[in-house]
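User:
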Amino acid sequence: NGGYLMPSKIEYQLEDDVPPLSSSSPTTIDSCTCCGTHVSSLHQLQAIKLLQQDLVKGGEVLRLHFIVGNRVLGQFGEMHKRERAIAQDLGGALPEELVGRVAKRGVELTETQKAAKKMLAEITTLQAPVIAAAAAEFAKATPTGVYVFHSDDFGDMAYLMTLATAAKPHCTSLLSFRQGEESQYYVTGPDAVAVQRLGKLLVKHADGKGGGKGDQVRGKGPAKKLKQFTSKSLGSVWDSKEEVAE
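Assistant: Predicted structure:
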């Protein structure tokens, strides 16, 4: 705050074979043993910036976090770069407006997520009977096959579980949705043995990770590999009755 630290330095000679012990005493602040890199005077530090303080050991010890010297200038430079980048992302906001703008963005994001979740629930309600009819039709044509449904556009695990419940009575079903470079999947069906076998095949052939008991398996894996396996190899692997070790 524009003040100066007027340091004094005292050396204590403990024993002949022990180097002098230095104590630095900035005026009006404290007196403590010097345990770091030695300087002849505190003015060589240029600046000291206290970043934060924490109470530890049940409040008995106050821990200070600070930076000194050129690190203060470097830290200020990095903070200025980040501030400018954030300001540009927020449409050229002034520095004093950043906190308010970011808080507003957070509120808008929360509202958007709520609206998207509500919309997904409505889509799921409409799509479930369509999936049920498709799974039933598939089961008539391919009684021992695996019905596969995948969404590249949207989804969450609740979405998959609702659609899986619709498909479950008809045949062994694999439902999935993509999320970035990864896909989440859900396996279910009337035959628990077939469901568990399909879950193990996904681990073996599509690098899937997950598991489950009985007539349900949940997991995730690389989106590309999962889609490649389900579109090109699943049918032949499934029909081959390939066994998968526990």
